[in-house]
Q: What sequence folds into this?
């Protein structure tokens, strides 16, 4: 047990027109499938609330001390599974489920405009698409300036880049919950392989995090 990799995967609660949030449905399907015997998987449903995210994410990182945290969100515009490469600090104008948004419209005051994952999402995308999964995966650099982007930015900062964000389409447009669960499983397994293959990730990540901290 002590040698198991720890991975946290989150989905979001319903919001707006998404009475059923496919992100949480997909994460529950992933929980059923698992990530293999060598991985200790913890899943969590995240409220669509800015202030709740600021309280929940530090506790997730602190409690589990994971090798990787993957957040999953729904995009009504997506027709493929999207791997987000980076997250943004500014532009949070949309109200959350509590009719709240940050007065500064920022995730972190004086934080860097953008934080990138240490993971090469293009490489993950190619590996999953080459595997014959039957679910198309694409890469994005705009997570949407709402709770998805906000959560990802917070987690990238807390985890020194060891985080990922995956956008999934609504259920049936075109993929089933089983399809989305398999896509999450395949993408996260490839992410873990990349982290294992490149020991420089930790070194690069620590340096980047130190540079980011100088801005705070």
A:
């Amino acid at each position: 047990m002590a040698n198991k990799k720890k991975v946290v995967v989150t989905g979001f609660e319903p919001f707006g027109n998404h009475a059923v949030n496919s992100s949480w449905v997909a994460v529950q399907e992933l929980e059923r499938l698992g990530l293999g015997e060598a991985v200790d998987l913890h899943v969590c449903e995240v409220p669509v609330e800015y202030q709740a995210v600021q309280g929940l994410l530090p506790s997730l990182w602190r409690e589990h001390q994971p090798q990787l945290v993957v957040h999953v969100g729904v995009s009504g515009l997506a027709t493929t599974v999207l791997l987000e490469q980076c997250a943004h600090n500014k532009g949070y104008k949309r109200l959350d489920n509590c009719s709240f948004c940050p007065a500064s419209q920022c995730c972190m005051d004086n934080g860097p405009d953008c934080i990138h994952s240490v993971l090469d999402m293009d490489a993950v995308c190619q590996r999953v698409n080459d595997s014959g999964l039957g679910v198309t995966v694409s890469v994005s650099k705009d997570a949407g300036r709402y709770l998805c982007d906000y959560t990802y930015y917070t987690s990238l900062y807390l985890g020194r880049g060891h985080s990922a964000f995956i956008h999934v389409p609504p259920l049936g447009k075109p993929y089933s919950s089983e399809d989305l669960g398999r896509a999450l499983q395949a993408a996260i397994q490839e992410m873990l392989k990349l982290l294992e293959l490149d020991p420089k990730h930790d070194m690069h990540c620590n340096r980047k995090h130190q540079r980011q901290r100088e801005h705070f």
